[in-house]
Amino acid sequence: MTRIQKFLDFFLPRICPSCKSQLDFTEEVICRKCLPRLKRVSEDIIFTEFQDKFKNDRIISDFTSLYYFEKDKEVHNIIHEFKYNGKFRIGLYLGALIACNLETRIRSWNIDYIFPVPLHHLRRSERGFNQSYYIAKGIKSQLKIPIAANLLKRQRFTDSQTHLSIIERKENVKDAFLVKKNKIISGKNILLLDDVITTGATISECGKVLLKAGTAKIYAASVAIPQ
Ligand SMILES: [Zn+2]
Question: With contact defined as beta carbons under 8 Å apart, do 143 and 103 qualify?
Fold first, then answer.
């Protein structure tokens, strides 16, 4: 494996998505300088964020996230490379990082299926893939929790939410999702997964339709939350 990796690195150099330096054969996806700089979210902050984003709606039972998303910092660069330059290996790696670092929390939820937050099919064809699906695959590879990728659909094309307030975001995603009636999700615990959870409006809307379709409990996780 190492010799093959050395060989491939010579002809097809792999680049760190954050600092753009060339990775050596011992480094996976993110270089050893950048990896420790990814800023972890503390348990206290997760608790406060849960209270702020999800507690009142009683849709999401618990939530966790791994890193802070800060403009022009490492996590921002990495997610940008992944989403907009089609580097899906980064997504698999981020999913594996979630699984390894947050395993105890995720296991305690007894998840039956991971649901990646879906993109509208027009957005997916523009980007070529759904980023959340690759993060989910990274989690699955470590924790062996199955993914249900096609049961939840985004039926309405929604505008980018970047510049919207919390109330506008809720309005923007209202009735945007549709769940295919399927016996396999009845009574099951679901983990909703997204790359970045900002206000939680999208996650809550997905959770709402899944609960209506008969699931038991909905949990949420993301690679990052805004700083
Ligand atoms: Zn780097």
Answer: yes
Q: How far is the CA of 34 from the centre of ligand 1 (A)?
A: 4
How remote is the CA of residue 117 from the centroid of ligand 1, in Å? Answer: 28
Give the count of alpha carbons within 13 A of 221, CB side only. 27
Residues 6+ positions from 147 with CB-CB distance below 8 Å? 113, 114, 115, 116, 133, 136, 137, 140
Who wins on pLDDT, 157 or 176?
176
Find the 153 Cα to ligand 1 centroid distance in Å. 35
pLDDT tens-place string over residues 15-52: 999 999 999 989 999 999 999 999 999 999 999 999 99
Q: What is the model's pTM?
A: 0.92
The rounded Å distance from CA 20 to ligand 1 centre is 6
**Taking residues 102-128, what's their average pLDDT?**
92
* Gap from CA of 22 to ligand 1 centroid (Å): 8
**pLDDT-based confidence at 123, cuts 50/70/90?**
confident
Residues sharing a CB contact under 8 Å with residue 191, sequence separation 6 or more, in sequence order? 106, 109, 111, 113, 114, 115, 145, 219, 220, 221
Question: What does the alpha-carbon distance between residue 214 and residue 186 come to, in Å, rounded to a whole number?
Answer: 5
Cβ contact 196:161 at 8 Å = no
pLDDT band at 1 (very low <50, low <70, confident <90, very high): low
